[in-house]
Amino acid sequence: MTKIPILLIAFYLIFQHARSQPIDYKGFIQWSWHKEGNTEYYLYTPSDTIPGQHHPAAIFLHGCCGEDDHATLRNAVDPPVRMWHNFGANTQMEPTYIISPKTTRGWSQKFADIKKAVDDLVAAGRVDPRRIYITGFSMGGAGTWQFLEQYPGYIAAAIPMGMGISADLEKIKNTPAWAIRGEFDYYAQKLDSQVAAVRKLNGYDGGGMEWVTGVNPTFTSFEGVGHGVQWDAASSLDLVRWAYSQVNDGNLSPVIYFTAPEYKQAFSPGQEVALEIHADDADGRISSIQVRLNYQLVSTFSESPVMEKIKIREGDNLVEAVAMDDEGKLSKARIIIRTNTKPIITTCELPDGKAGAFYLKELFASGNAPLRFAIPGSSSLPKGLRLENGNLITGVPEVAGDFTVNLAVIDEDLDKSEASFRIHIREKDAGEILVTQVRATSDTLINRVSKMMIGEFPNTQSGTEVSFSNTGPYTGLTYISTSADMADIVSGSLLNFQVSEDATIYIAYEKLDNLFTSTVPAWLSTFQRIPGQQIVAQYHYFDVYRKDFPAGKISLPGGESTRNNVIRNFFVMIGRQGAVMNTIPEITTRQLPQVSPGLPYMERLTALGGEGKPGWRIVSGKFPAGMHFSGDGLIFGTCTGEGSYAVEISAEDFQGDTDRAGIRLNINADGIGQFTVIH
Q1: What number of CA atoms fall less than 13 Å from residue 137's CA on the CB side?
Q2: Local structure of 643: helix, strand or coil
Q3: How far is residue 222's CA from residue 244's CA, in Å, rounded to a whole number?
Q4: What is the 3-state secondary structure (H, E, C) of 384-423?
Q5: What is the DSSP letter of 243?
Q6: Which residues contact 624 (CB under 8 A, 6 or more apart)?
Q7: Among 219, 214, 210, 235, which Cα is nearest to 86's?
Q8: In whole angstroms, how far apart are CA 676 and each of 602, 635, 639, 648, 660?
Q9: How far is CA 582 from CA 428, 429, 476, 593, 610, in A?
Q10: To which H or E segment does residue 451 belong?
Q11: Which of 119, 279, 502, 555 is buried most deeply by CB count within 10 Å?
Q12: Which residues lie below 8 Å from residue 221, measured CB to CB, with a gap of 6+?
């Protein structure tokens, strides 16, 4: 591995140390302190373990460095360890032990102790020795590679982030690994070539860094991201589910990859494309190879190489090849084959909104991905709504009425198309309050108006890693996410806004009372503190203060965070005095796009009102073969066959209130399907 300049190391260590203070994480009751040999660590013991059943275990190795080897819960807040219990929601896909040790200078001297801690859990009948996983970031990423080298065959799957490989490639080649870096990460600048070298040892000597090769290791590079890639990876990749799919049963996974065509190679619509697929199994034989086009099974083969022709459709075509060995272990390769086509907005409606109520609509389009939406200069969204992340219309509408919205979608080649939509914003509910004219001291700073719910975040200008994980009785209140960049303001007016009715204003101010202590600004003494009702945003905790205000303009002073020894700026919650809000969810989807034969389908149902984002489920009936429905309201897949289908679905909020709707799908002999939504 290339030597890193000493000055750069020193700067990085100072930067990491500065970022680490002060975090006052209290953790969950499932975390407990332990020591093995010279290594201190925290152990997460899931509450829902099943007696007599072995469970997975995940080892997390933190990045550089720390002032000593004393393990604190500070080590349990990094994204790669939090992802194993759902980023503060404290839920898991399945009960999993988490081991989070502490070190200051490298990890190799701690390996024997860490392995002993895991082995003791195995010996006690608590951990499945076939399902031990490891992940780490930066110095922990290096440690992850080195752990695989020191104990080959011990780990079921590894997820190293933000560091190149400094290990014997021959010893690590057979352990399933997902190697992750940021595009501009100095410490992982050679990771792509190192991954290619490991793949070559596993029988693949091609490119394919952009696509899933079906050859170990898997590789992801985040464009525009530097060393701090761990949040991007943990929050956007399905890493835990991938890890759970790997079982260390002594059987190596098969290898499968495309030799032709090239990734994103362009052809003409309707053209037959020749596929060349290679598969083999180092410790057995290939029993089957399935080829799928846009999630539909095209053909099955029993031996490699595969020579097959497929007819592609317009836009991006997803081609998958799945190899199964003689013991049932799978590997998958996937590429995109495309026709250069103009993007098309497939979303066919913008559902109703309501003044003062949270609005969320995801936009979909077909074409050459990546696709992003924009609001043309001649158009605008209703006041209070905004376009986020290139495909989400969200916010809290301020004014009722009917509005025309023009949307544009732009593809990878900068081809563009537009469509016009009508959106109806209803009058606000009697118990609701309108919050308008939100202004910060600086016009360049953004204040986000939304509703209190899990997943939203207390401050702007600071990313989304610190999001609400427990909003308690304040779920559903209108809130203003203040600027993180203005947390230190001591005097003057930080925030101004208007309320349409007499209002109760709640100030959520960070509280440090575990490893550290904090105070509050003097102006909060005019508010009443509400005891025993903290709001939790991952590893930050907020006490809540309340005060009544008349309708009209409200001004709030600065947060004085440094003076009071806190990190976050305060945020504001607003409710109408003495009012009871309507919290029953209402399914607002009225139209769904047409189903086209052989083409992937994707659209998400919408709901208005309720407390928090709803969970969705099928009450009765089923969608046709090839189409699926997820718990977040997404209808997706590629429809096959013809006929009529009836499905009843429900949307349920955090309080258990529900609404139901019927969905009928009629598919004719040509494979064209029309949806009808029945309320």
Answers
A1: 25
A2: strand
A3: 23
A4: CEEEECCCEEEECCCCCEEEEEEEEEECCCCCEEEEEEEE
A5: H
A6: 639, 640, 641, 643, 645, 665, 667, 673
A7: 235
A8: 16, 14, 16, 12, 14
A9: 10, 7, 10, 30, 7
A10: strand 448-451
A11: 279
A12: 180, 181, 182, 183, 191, 192, 209
Q: Are strands 416-426 and 401-410 parallel, antiparallel or unpaired?
A: antiparallel
Residue type, 198: V
What b-and-e string marks burial along 367-393, b requiring 16 or more CB atoms within 10 Å of the CB? bbeebbbebeeebebbebbebeeebeb
Beta bridge partners of 364: none
Q: Encoding tokens for residue 286?
A: 């290939």
Of 84, 62, 82, 79, nearest to 17 by C-alpha is: 62
CA dist 449 and 451 (Å) reads 7
Residue whose token pair is 């100030």: 507
- Kindly give, in sequence order, each residue whose CB lies less than 8 Å from that of residue 494, ignoring residues fewer than 6 positions away: 440, 441, 482, 486, 556, 557, 558, 559
Reduce the DSSP state of residue 219 to 3 states and report it: strand
- Provide the residue type at 621 as one letter: G
Element (H, E) at 607: strand 607-608
- What are the mean pLDDT values of the chain's consecutive 10-residue runs (679 residues total)? 34 36 86 97 94 94 89 92 94 96 94 98 97 97 98 98 96 97 96 96 87 92 95 96 96 95 90 94 96 92 94 91 96 94 96 96 95 91 94 96 97 95 95 91 75 93 89 93 90 89 97 94 96 93 97 95 94 90 87 89 94 91 91 90 91 92 92 91
Instruction: Name residue, tokens 């040509």.
Output: 670
Strand runs labelled E in 463-527: 478-483, 493-499, 503-510
Place of tokens 């969705």: 616
Per-residue burial over 26-59, b = 16 or more CB atoms within 10 Å of its CB, e = otherwise: ebeebbeeeebeebbbbbbbbeeeeeeebbbbbb
User: Is residue 400 within 8 Å of residue 359, measured between CB atoms?
Assistant: no
Distance CA 609, CA 614 (A): 9
